[in-house]
Amino acid sequence: MYGGARSGGFVVDVSDRGDVEIAFHLCKGCELCIASCPAGVLERGEALNRQGYYATTYSGSGCRGCGICFYVCPEPGAITVRTKKAVA
User: For the chain, how are helix, strand and coil distributed in percent, rounded to 5?
Assistant: First the structure.
């Protein structure tokens, strides 16, 4: 199957298995998450947060749910990754 993987009778779209939430006010704009994202769905934002940093933004789809961005982020609580459940 193109763009999906079979797992226990379910078809999971590999390109959109997760959702990323970035706390705009906590992001320091280091861009480590952007560089480490295998799906390339994170980008530098255009607006400054209250600390004067360009916070990272999520494109809204395409997250693989791997959590790499969460693990490389030096700011505790700045990134939350949620995985989506497979639909039968």
Answer: 15, 35, 50
* CB distance 35 to 68 below 8 Å: no
34 vs 44, 48, 73, CA distance in Å?
Answer: 8, 17, 10
Write down the pLDDT at residue 6: 46
Indicate the helix (H) or strand (E) that contains 49. Answer: none
Cα angle vertex 49, ends 58, 82, to 5°?
Answer: 30
- Interstrand relation of 4-7 and 42-48 (parallel, antiparallel or unpaired): unpaired
pLDDT interval class at 84 (50, 70, 90): confident
Can you give the pTM of this predicted structure? 0.78
Q: Which domains does the chain have, with CATH numbers?
A: 19-83 (3.30.70.20)
Percent of the chain with pLDDT over 70: 80
Task: Tell me the backbone φ, ψ of residue 15, rounded to 5 degrees.
Answer: -80, -5
